[in-house]
Amino acid sequence: MDLPMEYLTDLEGTQVTFDAVTEPPFNFPAQKWIILEKLGEESNYLTKQDIAAELGPSDTSGSFLCRPASEEDDNRRAFLRIYQQVPIAGTETKKAAIRARQAVDTPPNHPELIAFRTFMKLNCDVVPRLLGYQQRQQDHDEGVPGGYIPYILWEEVAGESLNF
């Protein structure tokens, strides 16, 4: 039996930087957060046939617990979701130039970010508050050079999570 592949590994202690976002109604300052703990990961690991059938790009989604980077003793915590495009099954060890051809021009619109943005625009106060988001491309030495990596950061609220 094949075990699920994990791509977002060994990130505990990593600092994640968010650029300022000033597109109304959003006004997020530039900020830095430290990843404390990985909470889970789900991969959508696709084959060439899956891609040809337009089932989307191969990607993974990881959930993490974070704290502000500048305030080590601060009790504030936030959740971070990282989506990352990953190589098509069977191409993980191919040259970077081959994997780079898999990078999509337009990253998928993740429903989670759409929901957080919509709730924020509507001033909804019964869901966790979006704290920031960032879209970047993978470097030459990453899984899919030029592939997408969006980051979504939201506040931790009291209670038990139903999905972590």
Topology summary:
Blueprint: E1 15-18, E2 31-44, H1 48-52, E3 59-68, E4 78-85, H2 96-100, H3 111-121, E5 130-137, E6 148-155
Antiparallel strand pairs: 1-2, 2-3, 3-4, 4-6, 5-6
Q: Which terms would index this structure?
A:
about 160 residues; alpha+beta; Phosphorylase Kinase, domain 1; six-stranded antiparallel β-sheet; 3 helices; about 30% strand; globular
What does this structure look like?
With about 160 residues, the chain is an alpha+beta fold. It has one domain: Phosphorylase Kinase, domain 1 (2-Layer Sandwich). Helix content is about 15%, strand content about 30%. The chain is built from three helices and six strands; from the N terminus they run E-E-H-E-E-H-H-E-E. A six-stranded antiparallel beta sheet has the order 1-2-3-4-6-5, with helices on one face. The two termini are about 25 Å apart.
Share of residues in strands: 25-35%
Structural class: alpha+beta
Please report the distance between the alpha carbons of the first and last residues.
24 Å
Oligomeric state: single chain
Query: Which CATH top level class fits?
Result: Alpha Beta
CATH architecture: 2-Layer Sandwich
Mean pLDDT across the residues is 90
Helix content: 10-25%
- Major sheet details: 6 strands, antiparallel
Strand order of the largest sheet: 1-2-3-4-6-5
Estimated radius of gyration: 17 Å
Number of domains: 1
Q: Could you spell the SSE succession in H and E letters?
A: EEHEEHHEE
Can you describe this structure in just a few lines?
With 164 residues, the chain is an alpha+beta fold. It has helices at 48-52, 96-100, 111-121; strands at 15-18, 31-44, 59-68, 78-85, 130-137, 148-155. The chain is globular, with a radius of gyration of 17 Å.
